[in-house]
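Contributing new records

If you add data, match the layout below exactly. Sequence lines come first and carry their own label; structure lines follow with theirs. Keep one chain per record. Anything else will be rejected by the validation script.
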Amino acid sequence: MSQDRIRRPSLLSKVVSADEAASLIKDGMTVGMSGFTRAGEAKAVPLALAARNASNPVKITLMTGASLGNNIDKLLTEAGVLARRLPFQADPTLRNAINHGDVMFIDQHLSETSEFLRSRQMKPVDIALVEAAAITEDGGIVPTTSVGNSATYVTLAEKVIVEVNSSHSAAIEGMHDIYIPGKRPHRQPYPVMAADSRIGTPYIPCDPDRIAAIVFTDKFDSAATNTAPDPETISIAGHLTDFLANEVKQGRLSNSLNPLQAGIGNIANSVLYGLVHSPFEEMTMYSEVLQDSTIALLDSGKLLFASGCSMTLTQPVGDAVYANLDKYKNRLVLRPQEISNHPEIIRRLGIIAINTALECDIYGNVNSTHVNGTHMMNGIGGSGDFARNAYMSIFVAKSTAKDGAISTVVPMVTHCDHTEHDVDILVTEHGLADLRALAPRERPKIVIEKCVDPAYRDQAFDYYNRALARGGQTPHVLEEAFSWHAHRAKTGSMKLS
């Protein structure tokens, strides 16, 4: 088995235990680890590091692609290993540590981490810790279910630790497309001309001499926890399908649409499910995370090809896909996130971007990250990469949260990740607001009528009408802009008396 997975014989001598590999990680180091949305993270060495910290404490900066599975962030946080974390996370324990100031969190656009490292604007990576399905004859590292920033970490790190995970089918080899950009300012354009373009190698190139340790593991990814579409998300999908069908009717899109992108999570995943029964045909996807809805669209024949940097599936869908990789491999590709999220490619391909808002305001500004403007949820992820550069930037959300105590459409967002300039369409279960070519004064009427829950509509119009009387390009009653949030903090509900 080891020779099937490690095809360069000289590397077999570097196989060690997880504890031995973890001992290479010293206090103060920066570790670049594989993993993107609960897929493809290193699993054995991080756990060994957490266990060791009780007797031999270290503090590290941990960089990944995005969030990790198998409770890795939780266990490292509880063990006190993390001093600094970037560029994205989604673990409640780590989130609490960030919001208490115990872990310093850098919330970055996911396309930028590699660029910051490559240009030495951040502290360099000491050790790359990456999961692999195999190591090739030349020392190339074959990723598993995500690529994320792994190629950059391997390229730039002083030492590389590889976790060879035998739970992944060897058939996954060939699904990846690894392209390492040249140096700026004379870098060549990335020749991605369509979602199914392949421009690199099926493995991460690596000098075998830089591989310091190899650890065998057989633990699989954490399954995604997406729930089935509910009445609200079905309604959101219906509004969006009708809107896109009208764009086709008006001649602005073809019936295959433009390549699709969708953010992670239940709402965006459910919205894509709605396209299974849509009139659109021969669609493609150029996204970050490929979820259950991607597989459903492929199986339906509606989707021809999907490009991403990670594949995060629920248990039953994952079991079906990984047992039949040969069926899907020629219709899927996983890339580094600096390629999947690259602004120029997104703009050139004309991506239709669908992302989820934590809250939005009546002018179209979107908060994706902070509760009440202060407490981090997960991070901006790739939504900014896509929103700013997409052909069409769509944000979806349910109109209320916490059993109606919170309106997700408010007078002013408490933290702005995506300004009104980058937001074209807002959709809730009540309707769709097309904000294109509307001045700020024209936006609130359609946002309130189409997207705000009826329980909050009157107070939203009341705020806007009084703001209009004060004038301005973007009218506000500044002393009341956050009154809904303040009222909820005091009474438990945003519904004003």
